[in-house]
Design a protein that fits this description.
The protein is an alpha/beta fold and 541 residues long. Among the domains are: 26-168, Rossmann fold (3-Layer(aba) Sandwich), CATH 3.40.50; 350-434, Luciferase, domain 3 (Roll); 437-540, GMP Synthetase, Chain A, domain 3 (2-Layer Sandwich), CATH 3.30.300.30. It contains 16 helices and 28 strands. Strands 2-1-11-10-12-13-14-15-16-23-22-18-17 form a 13-stranded mixed beta sheet. A 5-stranded parallel beta sheet has the order 4-3-5-6-7, sandwiched between helices. Strands 8-9-19 form a 3-stranded antiparallel beta sheet. α11 (278-291) links the parallel β12 (273-276) and β13. It is globular and about 70 Å long. It starts with a helix and ends with a helix.
Length: 541
């Protein structure tokens, strides 16, 4: 039995070949068509020498071609590397090198950046350009760095499924933010990934599913129309797509989040399940719904993860969708699913999402003691996951040793999220113990922004903190000590930083202080910096 991601997809193809698999805009593709096209691209990759364990980057917005490429990479037992399409050249250069890419599939519109970065890596020889969903007619030249167009790569290639046996031990990597701001590659065995992120464990009961359970249910008629709103470059959206492919379900994708268009799609396609990223999506969605003329009542499941879905916004949703089931799900790229909570309008918490503790999830205190759900109610600990956990971080044994820990003979993944034990084997998620800023579902690490800010000639010292924000959950705020005799405005700083950082990492607020709060040894005092920033912002309002 090969519990391999590619095998699980192929089981669904065999079960429901004529069913729609993916839809983007007006374009659709059935499971059989997706299989044939992915096979063609997979044979091209094989002809280029790409195979077991080789790393191929996916640098693309949501599109059917993105899905074809992902499946093709998996079919030849290579490793897909998710790349944030918002990255600037310096960030791309780091990731291309850290991930040891030998292949790259990119949207054609990114040819300029690829041409600047890719030639620096001798091993990166296979580069394929695909159409961008928002700019499908882009004619950027890809030949200068040896790139080929998707149609040319697939031309003349066999569409047969003849790739040989695969292994449950094949590695699947999800890149996520690291404590220094640099992305880290979380390495999963295929079976473990499927168990905790692809539906291989029943999320509600913890029961293990068999290899053919999802495809068998699809063949028996089970079908859902799902709409994950996040980009596939994020691990959560990618795992959602794969889970629904395994189950023979239709996934509708959009290359750009647009609240009004989302409701138009829900009504036109009768979408049943929506997945969103906290208030950053939930607030503009409910505002568009309240202001527009939409039905939306085909939705029976509305799920949020990866960011705060606040009490006030939830209440507005629940008032408009009284028959829908609302869930807050928690987890991370290092743990997979850790718990979910059915949200009741009469018992919403403003502290954080309250969820049932998931299969093999525990809370661990700072002394590495596992908390007892019966006797330790009210205590705070770090969320930890046992059982199906990652192998570690790619090329980072030091970070791996800190995150994947053996306690009393049990190996746990402990990424640093804190939660409070509640009655009934539930927990209230309190947030990351580090200074990570979560803005609209994107992780921003202060150290990375601080280094960029410090390079500005007017800046002497800086601390970066996250401030609460109704729409984004948090926003990036810079507390800056200037060099003597100079001035600095927020927009001037933002304009300067655009060459160094992605747009979502730019400070949205700036507070000038006479001296940065640090202790005697020079250690940053982030809580004090946050108080200063809050007082400054509140004083302006």
């Amino acid at each position: 039995m090969a519990l391999n991601i590619a095998d699980l997809f192929e089981h669904a193809v065999d079960a429901v070949p004529d069913r729609l698999a993916v839809q983007v805009g007006e374009d659709t593709i059935t499971f059989a068509e997706l299989e044939r096209k992915a096979n063609q691209l997979a044979h091209y990759l094989s002809a280029q020498g790409i195979g077991v364990g080789d790393h191929v980057g996916l640098y693309s917005k949501n599109s059917i071609e993105h899905v074809i490429a992902l499946v093709a990479i998996l079919k030849v037992r290579a490793v897909s590397i998710n790349i944030n399409y918002r990255y600037v050249a310096g960030e791309l250069e780091y990731l291309f090198g850290n991930a040891d890419l030998v292949g790259l599939v990119h949207d054609r519109v990114y040819a300029g950046l690829v041409g600047e970065v890719a030639p620096k890596f001798e091993a990166l020889k296979t580069i394929i350009a695909v159409p961008n969903s928002l700019e499908p007619d882009d004619q950027s030249d890809v030949t200068a760095y040896g790139g080929v167009l998707l149609d040319d790569a697939m031309a003349g290639q066999s569409d047969a499924r003849d790739f040989g046996p695969r292994s449950a031990d094949d590695i699947h990597i999800i890149y996520t933010g690291g404590t220094t701001g640099f992305p880290k590659g979380v390495m999963w065995r295929h079976e473990d990934f499927w168990r905790v992120l692809g539906g291989g464990v029943d999320f509600m009961t913890g029961d293990l599913r068999g290899e053919y359970d999802q495809s068998k249910a699809a063949a028996e008629g089970a079908n859902l129309i799902t709409l994950p709103l996040s980009p596939l470059m994020h691990g959560g959206a990618q795992s959602s797509l794969l889970m629904h492919l395994f189950a023979g379900q239709l996934t509708i994708l959009e290359p750009k989040f647009d609240p009004v268009r989302t409701w138009e799609i829900v009504d036109r396609e009768k979408v049943q399940m929506m997945f969103m990223t906290g208030d950053a999506m939930a607030r503009p969605l409910i505002e568009a719904y309240e202001e527009g003329d939409f039905d939306g009542q085909s939705l029976f499941a509305i799920a949020s993860s990866a960011a705060i879905f606040s009490k006030t916004v939830k209440e507005r949703w629940m008032a408009k969708f009284p028959n829908a089931v609302f869930t807050d799900s928690v987890g991370s790229s290092e743990t997979g699913f850790q718990g979910t909570g059915l949200q009741d309008a009469s018992a919403l918490s403003s502290d954080g999402p309250v969820v049932s503790i998931g299969h093999a999830t525990v809370l661990i205190d700072d002394d590495n003691n596992v908390l007892d759900p019966a006797t330790d109610v009210g205590k705070v600990g770090r969320t930890a996951k046992a059982g199906f956990v990652p192998v570690g971080y790619y090329k980072d044994p030091e970070k791996s040793a800190k995150t994947f820990i053996d306690i009393d003979g049990v190996r746990y993944a402990i990424p640093g999220d804190y939660a409070r034990m509640e009655e009934g084997s539930r927990m209230t998620l309190l947030g990351r113990g580090s200074n990570c800023i979560n803005t609209g579902g994107e992780k921003v690490y202060p150290e990375e922004v601080e280094q960029a800010v410090k390079s500005h000639p007017a800046v002497y010292d800086v601390l970066v903190v996250g401030l609460p924000d109704e729409r984004y959950g948090q926003t990036v705020h810079a507390v800056v000590e200037l060099r003597e005799g100079v001035e600095l405005a927020l927009e001037e700083l933002r304009d300067y930083l655009r060459a160094h950082l992605s747009g979502y990492k730019l400070p949205r607020g700036l507070t000038i202080v006479p001296e940065i709060p640090r202790n005697a040894t020079g250690k940053a005092q982030y809580p004090q910096a946050k108080e200063i920033a809050l007082a400054d912002r509140d004083g302006e309002e």
